[in-house]
Amino acid sequence: MNKDIAILLPYKEQYTKDHAGAASIWVKDYILESSLKDNTIIFGNLNKKFKPFSKNFKSLDFKGTFIKKNITYTAKLYDEYLKNKFKIIEIHNRPESLNYFLKKKIKSKIIFIFHNNPLDLRGSSTVKERIYIAENTDQIYFVSKWVKNKFFEGLPYKYRNNCDILYPAIKPLKKFPKKEKIIIFSGKLNSSKGYDIFGKTVVKILDKYKDWKALAIGNEPREKYSFNHARLKKIDWITHDEILNFYKKSSIAVVPSKWQEPFGRTAMESAAYGCSTITSKNGGLPETFKNPIFINNVNEQELFNKIKFLIDNSKIRKKTQLENFHSVLHTLENKIKKIDTWKKLNLNFKFNVKRDKKLKILHVSTFDERNDHRLFNISIANKLSKGLIRNDHDVINFSYRGFLNKSLITKKNKVINDKVSSISDNYRPDLVIFGHNNILERTTISNIKKKYNSKFVLWYEDALGHRGKGPNWKNNLQLIEKNNDLIDTYFLTTHPSEIISKIKKNKMFFLPIPVDENIENLKIFNKKYRFKDLFFAFSHGVNFGKLKKGKSDEREFFINSLMNKFPNLNYNILGVSNHEPKWNYDFYDELSKCKIALNLSRGKPLKYTSSNRIASLIGNGIYTFIDKKTQFEDYFDENEMGFYLNSDDLGNKIEKLLSNPDKIDKYGKNGKKRYFDLFNNKKITSQIIEKTFS
């Protein structure tokens, strides 16, 4: 068989287009697009009259009726393991199967994926069972934050290290589909899914609006509902692809679930296919797409009002359809990379370079020599170079600004390009990284590539997203687009989903602000005498070391609003009015006086986009608030990082926290640990190498 990775589906799942369940669709979507599909075999229990989704499937057949069918089924996979010694085993949604393998103490790495509420599953319902799973499983994924939170009910925080969210995802359509006046419901036709509410409501809607139709797709032998209308069509079980085709035609989708949905694939898919999607707020449904139309109370009247509103207001309906279509929250490309990266690292995956020698890396950036390293603690360039070195690579730093003197300024581009060419001729780098600049000319890049087969990486830390309208975002984007056909990968502190560019999407990756163990080395949560409540530092005059006269930005309005509304808080605000900014250890001294910090970036908040400040704050162990619209909740819980909606919300949350100083310290400690787990410079530079050479 010669496969490194084995995937075990629940034994009732049918890995086929005819009767696929949620876990089967999840595996099908991920494996068909995965770079590791040739390394993987999928095990399930498939009726022989059906054809599996993919060729790399093997049915674990067993006969007879058993008291413990699941264990008997799992034992079949163990037999396969003894023959093939899989390096990674991925188990879906059956804690009993997971526990079976954990107790065997096999040498394989084990991934487990929860698709449902862990409290409802045999083998993970008790605190003791979940602690055992957390302590012994190499990696645990959850299909939503809601499912993750259920798993950790009653569990100490320390068990979260090997846990992450891996949402179900979809491959977006390239073209907005042609819509018809159709209202669609898809799923089990039972009261838990809200089908009783949908049926009663849609009959009234169809009576009122003669040019509209409705579809109900699914079945439920245990509950029988009969909703009769000439324009309501009920369709029994059909394939997943056929359901997606109906989403393309439909204008309005309804997901009125009464039960706590672990995720809600129907909501995600219908929105991605351009439906105005009405959904309840139960379980993981709010996490499925960006522009939901929520039913606060699942009842006939509220659902009737929501559908009626969308029908009566065609402009709003079409606007939400387009917004859903153009802002798909969970795309397969990004999610697959996440799990593939983990697997590759644990397979010691070989890249397209000789790994028996360390990489020779030339890093062209500014390393702050001209400022006497006043900015050492916020220098991404320094942190990346240190991370590369910690990963056993050989690194030469060339600081193009530090190299220039006044006599060279007028011809700086030529001088710098000649210098990089000369260094490359001597050093013959495997990789050239140039950061926060695009000063290298086309001929320079092309010649080095031809001579030494070098890869080229560009990283950039300023605003690039059109929606955020950060300072100089247009000029910044034009700067990095130069010679994009010659650059292998881009690593950007603006999330690629926020960037509209001629650079190919598969070359752009998100660059979180890294932390370094020797730079972000404070433990502010341990400091006893902190008499200031809230810390914020403006960054005016970064390169000058002092405020620029007359300089201001929109963040001052937010800070002033906060201070006016909450005058009793003790603020430590630097870099504004007559409070000069502080740098390096002076900055740390000021930070150490404070209990809570605020990260507030210029421009509108964008997905995962932050400033260098966030590493200096949360990385040094101070509990830090950030705008909720940055979506950092995908990575952090509220006991690690604070999230606010506006100045009122922020002030209220700060006042509440100040009454419980032990909680502030605990959260500061949690946040530092989580940030270092996720975004330390060793891990981030490993990903840069992996993405560039894989």
Give an overview in words:
The protein has 694 residues and is of the alpha/beta class. The two termini are 24 Å apart. It is built from 22 helices and 24 strands. The strands form four sheets. The chain has a seven-stranded parallel beta sheet with strand order 3-2-1-4-5-6-7, with helices on both faces. Strands 10-9-8-11-12-13 form a six-stranded parallel beta sheet, with helices on both faces. The longest helix has 19 residues, at 661-679. Mean pLDDT is 89; it is low at 350-356. The chain has four domains: 5-165, Rossmann fold (3-Layer(aba) Sandwich), CATH 3.40.50.2000; 182-330, 3-Layer(aba) Sandwich (Rossmann fold); 353-511, Glycogen Phosphorylase B (Rossmann fold, 3-Layer(aba) Sandwich), CATH 3.40.50; 524-681, Rossmann fold, CATH 3.40.50.2000.
Helices and strands in order:
Blueprint: E1 5-8, H1 22-33, E2 40-44, E3 57-59, H2 69-84, E4 88-92, H3 95-104, E5 109-114, H4 127-136, E6 139-142, H5 145-151, E7 163-165, E8 182-186, H6 195-208, E9 213-217, E10 232-235, H7 240-249, E11 252-255, H8 265-272, E12 276-280, E13 293-295, H9 300-312, H10 314-326, H11 332-346, E14 360-365, H12 380-390, E15 394-399, H13 400-403, H14 412-427, E16 431-435, H15 442-452, E17 455-460, H16 473-481, E18 489-492, E19 508-510, E20 532-537, H17 555-565, E21 571-574, H18 584-591, E22 594-599, H19 613-618, E23 623-627, E24 642-644, H20 647-658, H21 661-679, H22 681-693
Question: How are the strands ordered across the major sheet?
Answer: 3-2-1-4-5-6-7
Task: Kindly report the name of the CATH homologous superfamily of the largest domain.
Answer: Glycogen Phosphorylase B
Number of domains: 4
Structural class from helices and strands?
alpha/beta
Q: How far do the termini sit from each other?
A: 24 Å
If classified by CATH, what would the architecture of the largest domain be? 3-Layer(aba) Sandwich
CATH class placement of the largest domain:
Alpha Beta
